[in-house]
Design a protein that fits this description.
CATH superfamily of the largest domain: P-loop containing nucleotide triphosphate hydrolases
Structural class: alpha/beta
Shape: elongated
Number of strands: 14
CATH class of the largest domain: Alpha Beta
Order of helices and strands: HHEEHHEEEHEHEHEEHEHHEEEHEHHHHH
Strand content: 15-25%
Largest sheet: 5 strands, parallel
Number of helices: 16
CATH architecture of the largest domain: 3-Layer(aba) Sandwich
Strand order of the largest sheet: 7-10-13-6-14
Length: 357
């Protein structure tokens, strides 16, 4: 293998010039790549775990047939960036190119949910009255999925420890003529036969959430006690409740009475293959995956999810990879920054520190 008296970033620059796109690889992989490039080895990308040293790659058919490389050595596990056709094959956890527009204009790419498609599951659950609960870290696509499934046929309330019954049901507001009653999103959704998304439902006091019980069970009605003139509101066909929560957020408390009313409950995770498909640097995805393993084991309290990775992609396009990495490190909780910095430094083969002015 040739030895190069240059930095990995210069090697990456050479690869970027050759392939017409930014490529950021750690030192050891950069040397392998350049060696393969100079030998005109045509290989495919492989999954790389930079922290565990697991490299799965594929040598060329000719090299496999010979059993040795061109220089007589064992074929190196070279990894050359995929062609556009190969890129389209990197989506095992999503349906090919199927997307839905969210109300904000962003695309949501569907994902497989067991043997089904996530958007289809939610829509059919609504038809059958199977109220649904999603839980997982922020940024994994919980809200995006609901918005993609129901579009503008949706009311949303963002829960917190300060959420009151009136935020759901409604209340009186002052007008030039006195006070006037205004329905809350729960009542509007029930009466109009629409969907209500209760985001961060776990942060709302369980006593407050008891107002949804009657609408979610066989009665499908709610009596507005705060306004006797409003009377009893009956849920119309199409009324549906979806909730989302981060189970590890401080203060989360979901009552058994509420949980038992959600017929469908599932964890929402980041789709790493989708992140790559949407243009996120592969080494950033690898680093994020490793940090999520540490999150699961309790070593850190935070790890980048799809939202952070897409922001990383956008910042990279505007200001470059190093700036984007330092920006991402600065967005991590202070207590986790040393570990996050170490993981990204190992992945990219360069010492990386949080952004600072």
């Amino acid at each position: 293998m040739p030895t190069y008296s240059t930095s990995p970033f210069k090697i990456n620059k050479r690869l970027a010039d050759h392939y017409g796109k930014d490529i950021h690889l750690p030192e050891e992989i950069s040397y392998i790549l350049v060696s393969a490039l100079l030998s005109e080895v045509d290989s495919k990308w492989a999954d790389v775990d930079m922290l565990t040293g697991n490299f799965e790659a594929y040598s060329t058919p000719s090299s496999r047939a010979r059993g040795r490389g061109q220089n007589g050595s064992t074929p190196s596990k070279a990894m050359i960036p995929p062609k556009s056709l190969e890129e389209k094959k990197m989506l095992p956890n999503a349906t090919e190119d199927e997307s839905f527009l969210r109300p904000n204009g962003e695309k949501y790419y569907t994902r497989k949910w067991g043997e089904h498609v996530d958007v289809d599951v939610l829509r059919e659950a609504r038809e059958s009255g199977l109220y649904s609960l999603f839980y997982g870290p922020p940024g994994t696509g919980k809200t995006a999925l609901v918005e993609a499934a129901f579009g503008t046929n949706l009311y949303t309330i963002l829960g917190s420890g300060d959420t009151e019954v009136s935020d759901l049901v409604g209340g009186y507001i002052q007008t030039p003529d006195g006070f006037s009653w205004v329905d809350g999103p729960l009542i509007k959704a029930a009466e109009e036969g629409k969907v209500l998304l209760i985001d961060e439902v776990g942060l709302i006091d369980p006593k407050v959430l008891s107002v949804v019980y009657g609408l979610m069970d066989g009665r499908r009605e709610y009596t507005v006690t705060a306004n006797p003139e409003r009377g009893t509101v009956k849920a119309q066909a199409g009324f549906f409740i979806v909730a989302a929560t981060n189970p590890h957020a401080p203060g989360v408390n979901l009552s058994e009475a509420l949980l038992s009313r959600f017929a469908i409950q599932t964890e929402m995770t980041t789709d790493w293959a989708l992140a790559k498909k949407l243009g996120v640097e592969r080494l950033a995805v690898t680093a994020a995956q490793n940090l999520n393993k540490r999150l699961e084991s309790g070593d850190v309290s935070w790890a980048p999810q799809l939202r952070e990775l897409l922001a990383f992609r956008d910042v990279t396009e505007k200001f470059g990879a190093r700036f984007a990495i330092q920006n991402l490190l600065a967005s991590a909780p202070e207590m986790d920054r040393p570990v996050v910095s170490d993981v990204f430094s190992r992945a990219f083969g360069e010492s990386m520190l949080p952004s600072r002015i």
